[in-house]
Amino acid sequence: MVQVNFNKEPVDLAGEEKKVGDEAPNFTVVANDLSEVKLSDFDAKVKLVSVVPSLNTGVCSKQTRKFNEEAAQLKDVDILTVSMDLPFAQAEWCAANGIEEVTTLSDHRTADFGLKYGVLMEHLRLLARAVFVVDETNTITYVEYVDEVTTHPDYEAALEAAKEAVEK
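Predicted structure:
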């Protein structure tokens, strides 16, 4: 079990911690159009999975914008942002912020992603900030559980890991 800090207070994360080399568990989340989406829908591609508590907060907004901006350099990578935000709120936020290269997905319905990737802050019903890179064979090649949920991930390390996964 991973422990992180949320506003400097320790929080245990529910679910199983993922490590480099683990097989990425398939999960079911909800797209902005309310359809179900699974990791397997992105098979045979490299995936950068950016996990945020809520798109409507400063750090989460910047994180999603940063990966959206970098998407042009990652042509063979699907960038997914997963949060507990309702799909309607995600769609509205993306439209208002010009987000077109990142696929936003909601884990609000069952927390399936949060539990399978060990990022669910159960008592807050939010996901902890994390980044995963999953290669085309669905092997996890990069993991970052951000120690303090209110701070930024290591963007450069995640982007480099995604580029390396494509080149392999």
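Summary: The chain has four helices and eleven strands.
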